[in-house]
Amino acid sequence: QVQLVESGGDSVEPGGSLRLSCTASGFTFSDYYMSWIRQAPGKGLEWLSYISGNSADTNYADSVKGRFTISRDNTKNSLFLQLNSLRAEDTAVYYCATTAREPQFWGQGTRVTVSS
Amino acid sequence: DVVMTQSPLSLPVTLGQSASISCRSSQGLVYSNGNTYLNWFQQRPGQSPRRLIYRVSNRDSGVPDRFSGSGSGTDFTLKISRVEAEDVGVYYCMQATHSPWTFGLGTRLEIQ
């Protein structure tokens, strides 16, 4: 069965960086678009970014464009999100999900806290 | 950005009764390929979101047929018939026709 496991979340100071990872199993990873979506504490869901199976197509929400970078390594069935110039408002649980337009399977999330 | 307006934001329901959640988009959601990328998600307390419905009315595998999606253009509805205790949680609509994809604020379903 499809499994997505995120990791890399941590507590960082404003201006800091983190790299989130999502390890996938149970499907042919390279065939699928993948997405990152986040949820601030007690808030709703916010789509952040997607990447195509061959990494040729990426897209970002304006709130993270220029600060976050999505990438993948199909040899390792892994999806990444590089978070730079972190702000307090980036505090959230970050989820990876399969596909772009119709996120079907989600991981359990990894928590990022940005605070001084 | 396309604004997704859900109503109500809180939905108290009696067990066994029906519930309906409205989701209205600020723009039409028909994509150039003819598809309407409107999804519904359920998030139970303490859990990750789970997709229930994609492309307006297609129910995911394993989702009870008590859940149904309908609508077109800018007006969409998730209906839950015969509400059960396991349905408690927050329900989100999401559009993925216009970039950036956007979610509604969520509707919290509770048992009264």
Describe this structure in words.
The complex is a heterodimer of chains A (116) and B (112). Helix content of chain A is 0%, strand content 47%. Chain A has strands at residues 3-7, 11-12, 18-25, 34-39, 45-51, 58-60, 68-73, 78-83, 92-98, 110-114. The mean pLDDT of chain A is 97. Chain B has 112 residues and is mainly β. Chain B is built from no helices and eleven strands. Chain B has strands spanning 4-7, 10-13, 19-25, 38-43, 50-54, 58-59, 67-72, 75-80, 89-95, 102-103, 107-111. In chain B, the strands form two sheets. In chain B, strands 2, 4, 5, 6, 9, 10 and 11 form a seven-stranded mixed sheet that branches. In chain B, strands 1-3-8-7 form a four-stranded antiparallel sheet, with no helix packed on it. In chain B, strand 9 and strand 10 (102-103) form a beta hairpin. The A-B interface holds A 37, 44-47, 59-62, 95, 100-109 and B 37, 39, 41, 48-51, 54-55, 60, 90, 92, 94, 96-97, 99-106.
Distance between the termini of chain A: 40 Å
Summing up helix and strand content along with how strands pair, one would put the structural category of chain A as mainly beta
User: Percent of residues of chain A in beta strands?
Assistant: over 45%
State the helical fraction of chain B.
under 10%
Radius of gyration of chain A using CA atoms only: 13 Å
Quote the average pLDDT of chain B. 97
Number of strands of chain A: 10
- What spatial form of chain A do the alpha-carbon principal axes imply? globular
Order of adjacent strands in the largest pleated sheet of chain A:
2-10-9-4-5-6
Mean pLDDT of chain A: 97
Low-confidence stretches of chain B: none
Secondary-structure blueprint:
The complex is a heterodimer of chains A (116) and B (112).
Chain A: E1 3-7, E2 11-12, E3 18-25, E4 34-39, E5 45-51, E6 58-60, E7 68-73, E8 78-83, E9 92-98, E10 110-114
Parallel strand pairs in A: 2-10
Antiparallel strand pairs in A: 1-3, 3-8, 4-5, 4-9, 5-6, 7-8, 9-10
Chain B: E1 4-7, E2 10-13, E3 19-25, E4 38-43, E5 50-54, E6 58-59, E7 67-72, E8 75-80, E9 89-95, E10 102-103, E11 107-111
